[in-house]
Design brief:
By secondary structure, the protein is of the alpha/beta class. Helices cover 33% and strands 22% of the residues. It has a six-stranded mixed sheet, sandwiched between helices. Bound molecules: adenosine-5'-diphosphate and magnesium ion. Magnesium ion is lined by residues 47-48, 261.
Length: 261
């Protein structure tokens, strides 16, 4: 579904400067439909850059990226993005926040209301439709952020450490909600995390990113049946294996920051 073909990305504030070091270099990657892909790697090695490219927020410096065989030229409701901090409009209630994107994307008032209510139900927030963002916990705000994306019926979910600011209990609940949604709606998921436990619990496939020029350090298929048990030996073994792979990588940022964002 996502296809990265020899993609490189370098940032430069001045367009004529061409010798900025590449963050991603000559990266080729295919993510088939309905795969749940988790991305791990030290801070600064380009994970968010990868997600922003898939979202269409930024363009590659070289190479080509397609989604469902179409070039990615910009953001699309087919590719919903969820960030670490849910930024809801504080002047709109929960329902209003979900309706906003639907109305902006041309849904009629009635259709938008139907979709928004369904999406809130899918994330277990239907009882809070009239609440204001300030009244919600972090986990509830993140549920609303997910409902806002789901309402637009995306084919892909692009998630950048979406639950890492939440307490352990909310995080586990949201992981399970996400897995249920993914199994039902058949999304393709690109999920960045700094938690090896989270990757082992969620992923069909784990990519471990490191610094350019060889960004894709590990590409591992996780062929473990679902539902998975967090405390199982298999998960523990996998977690250990992933941590060992991660520890082989040099830091991408100087001074060294490991796995913080
Ligand atoms: P990660 O998510 O793995 O921590 P990022 O993709 O956020 O890494 O960043 C990779 C590198 O690219 C970092 O050195 C970061 O400072 C740099 N970078 C990210 N976005 C920009 C930008 N818009 N302009 C310039 N440099 C950027
Ligand atoms: Mg990041």
């Amino acid at each position: 579904m996502f296809h990265f073909d020899r993609v490189s990305k370098q940032y430069s504030d001045q367009p004529h400067v061409t010798d900025a070091p590449p963050i991603l270099s000559d990266l080729s990657l295919h993510i088939p439909a309905h795969q749940f892909v988790c991305v791990l790697g030290p801070s600064g090695c380009g994970k968010t850059t990868l997600l922003n490219l898939a979202a269409g927020f930024i363009q590659p410096s070289q190479g080509r990226i397609t989604f469902a065989r179409q070039p990615i030229n910009g953001p699309s409701p087919h590719r919903g993005v969820v960030f670490q901090d849910a930024t809801l409009f504080p002047w709109l209630n929960v329902l209003g926040n979900v309706l906003f994107g639907l109305r902006h994307n041309g849904y009629s008032k009635n259709e938008a209301k139907k979709q928004a209510e369904l999406a809130l139900q899918q994330v277990g927030m239907q009882q809070h439709a009239k609440d204001w963002p300030a009244m919600l916990s972090g986990g509830m705000r993140q549920r609303v952020a997910i409902a806002r994306i789901l309402a637009l019926k995306p084919q892909a979910l692009l998630m950048d450490e979406p639950f890492s600011a939440l307490d352990a209990n909310s995080r586990e609940h949201l992981q399970d909600t996400l897995l249920e949604l993914w199994q039902r709606e058949q999304h393709t998921v690109l999920y960045i995390t700094h938690s090896v436990e989270e990757a082992a619990y969620l992923a069909d496939r784990v990519l471990i990113f490191g610094p350019a020029p060889h960004n894709l350090h590990t590409d591992m298929v996780i062929d473990m049946p679902r539902p998975r048990l967090r405390s199982s030996m298999a998960i523990q073994k996998l977690t250990k294996q992933l941590r060992e792979q991660l520890n082989q990588l040099p830091c991408c940022l100087k001074p060294c920051h490991r796995g913080e964002n």
